[in-house]
Amino acid sequence: MQNIDWASLGFSYMDTHCHIRYVWRDGVWSEGELVKEPYLKMHIAASCLHYGQEAFEGLKAFRCKDGKVRIFRPHANGERLIGSARRTCMAPVPVDMFVDAVKRAVKANEDFMPPYGTGGSMYIRPLLLGTGPQIGVAPANEYTFLVMVMPVGPYYKGGLKPVRALVVDEYDRAAPHGTGDIKIGGNYAASLYAHEEAKRAGYPVELYLDAKTRTFIEEFATSNFIGITKDGTYVTPDSHSVLPSVTNDTLKQIAADLGMKVEVRPVPFDEVKEFAEVAACGTAVVVTPICEITRGDTVITTGDPDGCGPVLQKLYDTVQGIQYGRLPDTHGWCVEV
After folding, report:
1. Are residues 87 and 209 in the same domain?
2. Could you give the residue numbers annotated as active site?
3. Considering its fold, how many domains does the chain have in total?
4. What is the phi/psi pair of residue 78, to 5°?
5. What is the Cα–Cα distance from 22 to 246, expressed in whole angstroms?
6. Which of 180, 166, 168 is nearest to 208 (CA)?
7. What is the CB neighbour count within 10 angstroms for residue 249?
């Protein structure tokens, strides 16, 4: 066990023993090797540097109540990476290889896994890069796939804390037929400027509307949007520009398991004021309650500024219960290392 102050862990990078790395050449992936050095040497003409051939994933592993280590839904992340690779003309990583790579990286760094009861977990970042030299605009002839891991603490210490959100009308995260539905760095680069502006104005998260009409909710900069109606219906937007979130998919299934009605449909921005609870959802925190949404001079209250709503809290507790092995994994989401 590493000499780490588990109670002080935040959500930030930390060097561990190693990462695992694979290379694709001549149509074949290598067997993968554990690499101690946290650096990647690549050609200065690598396609990821010039033309953005890059995709990534984010998932977590947990030390469970029974002492075992389990990874949460790696197959779903592997499937999503295939979609990202296809859209960016990169060599796809087979799901079985993806899951095995994640397991190998976690196993090799298991003593960085936060103990059960600390609220921590191991964050896993798979990364797919075009590393072959390419000056003309075309796909690379070589790709690198790697998986890095690091221990992280609970995103919100002491319980879920609501935040304020700002609607961004001046910038778009993704075009209607662009790359919003795949997990590539370019989408995040496109949102950085607006995100920094929002932070300077006192808003931790920003909300994007559809780029065509500015009337329908799409998603927060790094998270899907979910709303809970006054009658307890789980609502989330249906849009090609929205990333298919594994966390959102998990929450939708849990909501259905709890007997809630689930709707995936276009969500007009005007409907925000009708929701009893609103949240952003993603791997880092599961759900982030949103207590207020500002658009121009309009401020809409969407929840308790001092705490999390009862439905979101129940969904969060259920996800965490499954991830840490306190509740039964009836859907077979957790993969033991």
Report:
1. no
2. 183
3. 2
4. -65, -40
5. 24
6. 168
7. 16
Q: Is the residue at 332 inside a domain?
A: no
Tokens of 255: 């909501």
Side chain identity, residue 234: Y
Tokens 């780029």: give the residue.
211
188 and 283 in a common domain: yes
Q: Are strands 205-209 and 163-168 parallel, antiparallel or unpaired?
A: parallel
Beta bridge partners of 252: none
By C-alpha distance, which of 159, 119, 165 is closest to 306? 159
Of the chain, the end-to-end C-alpha distance in Å amounts to 17
pLDDT in tens, 136-177: 999 999 999 999 999 999 877 667 899 999 999 999 989 999
Domain extent for 27: 6-152
Give start and end residues of each alpha helix (H) in the chain: 47-51, 74-87, 95-108, 185-200, 246-257, 310-323
Partners of 226 in beta bridges: 279
- pTM of the predicted model over 0.70: yes
d(CA 143, CA 216): 37
Lookup: tokens for 271: 């409907």
Tell the burial category of 336 from Cβ atoms under 10 Å away from its Cβ (0-12, 13-18, 19+).
exposed
